[in-house]
Amino acid sequence: MPATFAWLGGCGVSNTVIAEVDEAGPVAFTTGDAATADVSTGLIDYCPTNNCPPGWTTCPNSRFPCDVNLENNLDNCGACGHACPTATGWEAYSCIGAACVVNCATGANAKLDCDGLADNGCETSGSSNENCGACGNKCPDPANPCIYYIDTREMKCGCPVGKQWCTSRCLSKDADDHCGACNNKCNPNGDGGTLPPNRYYGCKNEQCGALKCKTGFDNCDGLEDNGCETSLTTNTDCGACGNACPTGQACRVDPDKTVRCMCPPGQTFCGTGHQLAGLDEGACVDVATNQDHCGACFASCLATDNGDNSAAVCKHGTCVSECHAGLADCNNSALDGCEVNLNSDPRNCGSCGSACDAVAGQACVGGRCVVEPCDADAGGGTAR
Description:
This protein is mainly beta. The protein folds into four domains: about 1-65 and about 345-384, no CATH class; about 70-160, no CATH class; about 175-285, no CATH class; about 300-340, no CATH class. Helix content is about 0%, strand content about 30%. The strands form 13 sheets. Strands 1, 2, 27 and 28 form a four-stranded antiparallel β-sheet that branches. The chain is elongated. The protein starts with 5 loop residues before the first strand and ends in an 11-residue tail after the last strand. About 25% of the residues are buried.
């Protein structure tokens, strides 16, 4: 009769079955020390076991029984000792369904896995005209080569609508230095006549000669004689005409170089020490939760990170150490950090001190003690 396995959380009861029920009868969930069930009721008595559920096994370097999941373990993918290739700058590997799967990095000059072989990784350039962003995606027009789109972080054939390929970049066709064509620079002085304040001649509709406002200014009153009379770097006109900053906020420059009112309630302005157009440059952060600005600007929690088993996080403005999922500090010692794996340690299965049946050698899988139907002659409560 094929074995049916269930998980029990410590000494508790679980309704999670991780294998199909055999034809002997329906599954019933009992405590590990329960007496043999009355067969006439159709219930099945479960006993602690050191047998591994399907997909799990004990490898030579295992610390505990059944602590390796062959379905997703990078070092034991599909079989003990079968490790997936080491990750590089272009690819990473994962174990999915007991098979090594390659995951190619995205972005400029990224590579692709076009032959479907995990062993040689991402072997094909994804920035070529033959494979632009995807295997077999060709760019046949030399005027529209394979280009990296910074905004969307993807490779595509040719520039977006309204832009042209100049100096290895996609630039607006209304750019003052590339007006309608690459390197076609507009004369900011026009014909040499007197210009209104904060005005210059630039490109519009791919033609030079359009009267424009200098960066940081606008014609808010609509009058041409006084030019672009309004500075857009003030608390009354921050980034746009009439955009007044609320009380407690000021006109500043954010990390994206955008002029806006900063910062909203609950956030603190952390400046870089630089200025743009006379405005302080920086970011709005919540110092109660921000890992890089915990409790104060530039007070980083990264210096207190404890390595692989735990991570430093910011809570209520204080850096604290938290165990990674599935790990715990059961001895309350900072010397060994999060020393217990709650998913596989039968002495601490699911939580500190929650022990499986040590006499029966009961395994802990996924934070639950494993049981299976008792043998008819086992007397109940024993592993088979």
